[in-house]
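Open question from group meeting: does this chain pack into something compact, or does most of it stay loose? Before anyone orders reagents, we agreed to write out a predicted structure and look at it together. Recording both the input and the output here so the notebook holds the full record.
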Amino acid sequence: MPVFGSKKKLRKWDRICRMNIEKLPSKKGVGIKIFIFSLPKLSVLYISLILPKYSEKVGSKNKLKRFKENETFNNVFQPTREEVVGDLFPLKGKWNSDFFKNENPLVLELGCGKGEYSVGLAERYPNKNFVGIDIKGARFWRGAKTAVENGLHNVAFVRTQIELINHIFAENEVDEIWITFPDPQIKYKRTKHRMTNSEFLKLYKKILKKDGVVNLKTDSEFMHGYTLGLLHGEGHEVLYANHNVYVNEGSPEEVTAFQTFYEKQYLEINKAITYIRFKIK
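Structure tokens returned:
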């Protein structure tokens, strides 16, 4: 394998590589392939080092663009942390009266990612109101944009931390919660971050109505087992549980009617998708 010679030669390749990087076409992937094969073999090792920086640069530009576009959507809310913890969020306790303008059931998706599930539920159930929650606005940008393009007026998105949802919704304001494919946080020291731990359940109970329910859909057998054990141990009511919703019969319609981007990938490799529906006592 060829190796770099002097530091002077390395600096020369640095200039060549960076000059060509700046000239790469914006179309993802195409320019990179042309660039790699048009340079001598000596540069390939170096390209592997600097391409991640280029990808990071492009990714940052896309994020800024999406954040900016989010500001133009009337279904997106991006309050500052100070506004949230200071209880200055104007829709707390008023989601149905001031935003949705109806008295339909209010359903949340926590950690909504790209918003596919929130949008899918909103399309399928027009007589319910949906709110997707995620700290990463660049992710749910896709769902918010799709909702605007499809004229869906029963779905919205909020950029905030899940730990602060009691500042976004009032007591007894929410009818149902969906937790879709959360990080299972398998390490013991990460237990406090598991979205079905005891502290999170107490938080959900504050905003749920008396008969409110929680849905957990995950590809993690660990998360499924952990949650079932915790629910039974603390005396909560498990309404339904299924360790493979696409194989075992009886799964609710809203569980199998549509899939997220990552769920489709899991299904392609025959990874079991689990589901639990429960009430917090």
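Observations to bring back to the group:
The beta strands are 76-77, 106-110, 129-134, 155-159, 174-180, 208-218, 237-242, 274-279.
Residues 69-279 form a domain with the Rossmann fold fold (CATH 3.40.50.150).
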